[in-house]
Specification:
Strand order of the largest sheet: 2-10-9-4-5-6
Shape: globular
Largest sheet: 6 strands, mixed
Number of strands: 10
Order of helices and strands: EEEEEEEEEE
Number of helices: 0
Helix content: under 10%
Length: about 120
């Protein structure tokens, strides 16, 4: 059974940092591109970042470029998202998922972790 479990969310002040983790199991993690998306209250899914299988190449949404860093540890089957200089409008549930964006019928996604940016 494919499982993705996000952690690391919480309450942070504007300008602060958080590091999200996504622990995976049930599939060959190192063979999959991996993606982070987020969903703000009342809005649809927004793509944040994607990383290739070996971690050499990353893509970012323009809104997070230069502030967020996606990475992975294939030995630990874990995906990460380092988020710096967070903004209030980035309050959302953050999800990790297999593959690239846009998602398709083969995408597996975790339950998400809440990130709240507020003073």
């Amino acid at each position: 059974e494919v499982q993705l479990v996000e952690s690391g969310g919480g309450l942070v002040q504007p300008g602060g940092s958080l590091r999200l983790s996504c622990a995976t199991s049930g599939f060959t993690f190192s063979s999959y591109r991996m993606t982070w998306v987020r969903q703000a209250p009342g809005k649809g899914l927004e793509w944040v970042s994607t990383i290739t299988t070996g971690g050499v190449f990353q893509r970012y949404a323009d809104s997070v470029k230069g502030r967020f860093t996606i990475s992975r540890d294939n030995a630990k089957n874990t995906l990460y998202l380092q988020m710096n200089s967070l903004k209030t409008e980035e309050t959302a549930v953050y999800f990790c998922a297999t593959g690239s964006w846009p998602f398709d019928e083969y995408t597996s996604r975790g339950q998400g972790t809440q990130v709240t940016v507020s003073s």
